[in-house]
Amino acid sequence: MILHTVNAPPGSGPFEACLRCVAAKDQILLLGDGVYALTGSSDAINGLVNRGVGVHYLLEDVQALGVVFEPSIGHAVDVSGFVELTERCTRQLAWYV
Length: 97
Description:
Layout: E1 2-6, H1 13-21, E2 27-30, H2 43-50, E3 54-58, H3 59-65, E4 75-77, H4 79-88, E5 91-95
Parallel strand pairs: 1-2, 1-5, 2-3, 3-4
């Protein structure tokens, strides 16, 4: 199981590359500009959930950026939750602009 940390905004090269590489049972943590994927129609996020990917977002970044979205999308984590995800996953890939 891989933890994909995504700090790239939706539509960017790194964000789209991550979407192509992620597999069922992998985990994605949206942070920084990556949390903008939670807004709008969230088609990418819903597609990931339907494929069995765990979607998480860093609550501090959502609050700092003022992102508004449907609260049922993904799972909020704080820094301690981020650490827990890194401990649960055998590998980590970072997707940044």
